Amino acid sequence: MEPERRTLNTIKYHTHLLVSIPPIPGVGDLVLQHGELLRQELSDGNLQWLCYLSSTSVYGHCGGELVDEDYPARPSSELAKMSIVAEKGWLNLAHDLGLSAQVFRLGGIYGPGRSAVDTIVKQKPLSEGQKMRASRQFTSRVHVEDIGQSLKAAIFMPSSGKIYNIVDDDPAPREEVFRYALELIERKWPGYIDHEAACSMAKPCEQKGILRRDKRVSNARVKKELGLRLLHPSYKSGLQSIIDQMDTPVCYNREFKPNR
Ligand SMILES: NC(=O)c1ccc[n+]([C@@H]2O[C@H](COP(=O)([O-])OP(=O)(O)OC[C@H]3O[C@@H](n4cnc5c(N)ncnc54)[C@H](OP(=O)(O)O)[C@@H]3O)[C@@H](O)[C@H]2O)c1
Q1: Can you give the residue ranges of every domain in the chain?
Q2: What three-state secondary structure class fits 228?
Q3: CB 205 near ligand 1, within 6 Å
Q4: pTM for this one?
Q5: How many CA atoms does the CB half-sphere of 52 hold within 13 Å?
Q6: Architecture of domain 5-251 in CATH?
Q7: Largest Cα–Cα distance in the chain?
Q8: Is 157 in the pocket of ligand 1 (CB under 6 A)?
């Protein structure tokens, strides 16, 4: 099925295009499937700048190494393999259209409404992906505000296909992050959370060979070339700012009666 004319015109008559749709398992990049049509339609439009949001998962298994953008990408999951293909596809399209282009390889995104604090407060069982990530020694993450700042910086820095890792300075294990989130919650809302249940969320599950998947992702390039100064260099300030913005956790699955 071809994209709607309205959508094509929206892209064509704007100057900046941020691609944030992840690849679809079994399909690939939904938009790049129409690459030839995009080349024809966008060649005489207003588009000047393009950024594709990819993932640090493209590096694959790295045995705990420090990984910068020149590290060979050896994706292992289907999604990561599709992300690498999509990165190349978008950079080629941008090249053919003469656009400034970059790829952002993002760590795990967190922010208000999507964080360890939210997961604990919601008290829902962990998804399979969350259980798997719980076993990693290092997990790179980035606060959504720092993605925003990086995008703004990239708009003012023309690039013909640069790749940037967008992660914070502190690739901490998920278990540590959950323990910290729990401390913040118990300090702010004493008695709200079932402590034992919350602790079990943080526990890593037993999985063999997990170290192979570990990596510490370097953000040196984005700091040097785009001048990024992280608002949240660590999950600690990121989670603190999230909980500071939360009034009460009543919006979730039960009424909150403060234990005072
Ligand atoms: N989440 C992470 O921790 C993480 C980590 C690394 C990289 N990334 C990358 O960062 C980007 C944003 O991630 P995200 O988790 O926020 O992704 P998401 O929630 O799955 O979706 C982001 C955007 O893509 C749109 N979208 C998703 N599937 C679509 C489909 N089949 N057709 C049309 N639009 C579709 C969504 O539209 P609706 O709003 O209409 O649903 C939304 O605007 C993605 O490219 C992802 O690969 C994410």
Answers
A1: 5-251
A2: coil
A3: no
A4: 0.91
A5: 28
A6: 3-Layer(aba) Sandwich (3.40)
A7: 65
A8: no
